[in-house]
Each structure stands twice: as structure tokens, then as C-alpha cells.
Amino acid sequence: MSATPSAQYRLTIRVQLDDSPGILGLVTTAIGDAGGMVGAVDLVESDGSHSLRDIVVDASGRDHWERIVTAIGQLGGAEVIDTTDRTFLLHVGGKIEQHNKHPLKTRDDLSMVYTPGVARVCLAISDDEDKAFQYTIKRNTVAVVSDGTAVLGLGDIGPHAAMPVMEGKCCLFKEFGGVDAFPICLDTTDPDEIVHAVKAIAPAFGGINLEDISAPRCFEIEERLKEQLDIPVFHDDQHGTAVVVMAALLNAVKLTGRRLEDLSVLVIGLGAAGIAVTKILLAAGATQIIGADSQGALHVKREDYLDGSMNPLKRWFAEATNPDCSDGAPADVIDGADLLIGVSGARALPAGALARMNPDAMVFAMANPNPEVNPEEAAPYVRIMATGRSDYPNQINNVLCFPGIFRGALDVRAPRITEEMKMAAAKAIAATVEEKELSEDYIIPSVFNREVAPAVAAAVAEQARAAGTALAGQEVGFAQGDTMTVSPHGGIGEGHG
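User: That's the sequence. What structure does it adopt?
Assistant: C-alpha cells below.
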């Protein structure tokens, strides 16, 4: 089956055409016959004998580009002048930039924004560091921190190559949560150095989003930072995935008439996401869970558990799950499962094995770009199918979680993101799919549903208030205009979105 053309391989082809009837139609037909999908066609210039046009084409890969360009070149009266990779073009110079909130047009402006007026604000913060949340970017700024060791679909590519992903994460923070985020890629994989670096930059930020740090180091780094910082620290690969999985599951069990407490679950992949998903399932009441890593099902009789070579998180997993010590590959332990959660890699399970799951099986196969089991092959065996891809229904995507969860935490200045806040976020995401809309192909809202982030933020903020961990009473929220906000410690500050 050939790959489908997509925007990630969007190409602008500049073509010089003879001024003869029907030549443009011949070019677009050639592109279509070569499997390309034509978008915009723009006239660049015309001199009477020739015209220059830019044709936007979606392809399925770089090799496909070559076939399309060759097809055009074989036509009489058409010559390819240039091609532009639209994805690379979008990344030129990076994807984010800084903007001043207030114009600097006069000496008076300068005297308030910088010297000498800024000194008064500095001294106020020096006397009371808590005022940094009122008078600096700290109140609405998150650091997206990575060492580039576990980038989705790419693996250990290092801090320089990870920057485009972290910039993209920052774009999503701003677009969906109104949160100003900044990418911080660290040139070290040492947990001590990462913790030290994040602690050193923490005064400038209201929260820390850890991203694409490989397991098991990510667990230690997050726990140490949560202990040592008084601002939220959130490893999105773990908890963002867990929250969105739980949101999808809350709706899936409604459709299938099940209870979370009764589910039999198989988790394939026990890295950061697999561990976090299991923890939230246990917290929700699930008790029948088997997890499998590259060596098969985890249990307390497995050799690496007995000889002490198993890492601490997997030891915890072995002790907390699979009490019957079921053994073997995922396909060997799937019998009687209600729910399969895949956070591992492509083709981790043969589709035929799904036939041994219980009726109305639920499969969340989230490996990207290729899921653990192909949805088309899984279709005869499952009632509800979810993936991490945007070209199938029920996309489980962390963007449904992290912008809103940080928005809510920042709004009330919660010092940490608790398990209760994560569950509140999951319920808020699930609730944006109304009962009348719920179906096998719609258990989770679209990433572009603008109701999700505000709903998550409100639920997280309310949970922080209920737990008594909210340090601010007045919310910043999603407002984009000028607002006046009152600090919980007194004083009036002007906010400007």
C-alpha cells in the first residue's frame, strides 16, 4: 500500500510554461498521474511567450518528489526551474520570536522600561522575591527542557537536532494555552548536570516542561526537580500521554458498558509513557494489568528481576502488576484483555492476536508514525481503535493536555501538578465530547477543538483551589487584552496579553 501524500512533504515547484493552450492542465494531470496532490497554482510572471508558475504539491516522501518532478520534465513545453521544501521553509530562522508588549517611542517609555525606572521594580522584587510573579515574565512563561535523547520517532539525536521539536512545542503552548514557552536544549545527558542547569534557570520561569529525555533518567530528573523547585515540573512524555489516554478511556468504557475497575489491560512498552499510563490506571482503580517490554511480560519471577539487574521503575511495575506472573511476548499474554495500550514501536503485535481479546475490544496503538498494529488490519477484531496519528480517528495527542494543564497551574500559581490535577484534566478532556456525540470513531476531541484547553485549565485550577495549593486568587487566564490583576500579596499590576 503506497503512502498517502501529506503536508509534511509539501513542495513548491516553480515551472516555466510555454504560452500554449492546455499546457497547465497537462502539468497538473502529470502531477496527479504521478500520485501527487495539487494545491495552489500561482502565476509569478508572464511575458507573452512564457509564464512562470508556482505549483504547490503534496507528496508521500522525497523519492516521490523526484518522480513528480521527472513527470513534469518529460512534458513538452514545461520546464522545472526550482523546487522549495515547504516544511524546511517554515523552519527557516526558527519558528518563534520575541515581541515587546509595550512600544518604546519616547524617552519616558525608555525611562520606565529600563533605566532609571526599572530599578524601583528590581528593588521591590529584591525585598520580596514573590513579586517576580507579578512584575516579570515568570507569571506566564514555561521552559521546555530537553537533552534530545528520546525524541519521538527519532530517538537520541542530541540537543541541536532536538531544537525544532522543542520550538514546535513552544508554538503549541502559545497557540492553545496562551503560555509563553521557550526551548532549552541542554548539551549534557548527566542527570546531576540537568537538574543543576534547570535549577539555575528556574528564577525566570513559572513552570518546567521536561521533554524527550530518555528513560529511566527522566524519572529521576523529574522527581528531583519536583522536590527542589517551588514551580510546576511536568514531564509531558509521561504525564501528558497518561492524561490523554485516560480521557479517551473514560469515554471508551462508556461506549462499551465497562467499569475501569473491571478492565483487563495489556500495556506494550514500558518507557516513560508506559509507566505513567499504568500509574494513572492504577490510581483510577484498575487492578488487572500486564506490561511487556522488549523482553516480554514483566513479573517478579522474571530473571532480570530475580538477579537485580532490572531498573527500579520496572521493579516497581513488576511488583504492582501481573500477580499471576503471566509470561511471554505480548501476543502470548493478550488472552482475555479488554484494553491494549501500545507505547512501544511499529508492528509490536500481529493483528491476528487481537482476536483473543474480549468482545468489544479497545486498542490504543500510539507508536508514531507506525502503530503497534495497523488499524486496517485490526478493524475486524476491535470495537474502538485509537492511534497517535492525525490521519485516523481518535488521535491521542498530548497537545490536548499540556497547554491547558500549565495554563491552569500558572493561573493560580500552583507549585506543583498533582495526581488529582491530572485526573481532573483527563475528565475535562473527556467531557468536551458530549454524550450525544460519542461514537466509536469519536471518543477524544480534536486537537483543534478550542474548548479543550480552557476546560482543562479551569478543572486544574479548581482542583488546586480545592486542595489548598493555589497561591493566587486572581487568574490570568486566556484573555488577550489589557487586564488589571491584583497580586495575592498586595499591589496592582497591569497585564497585557
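The first strand starts at residue 6 and ends at 18.
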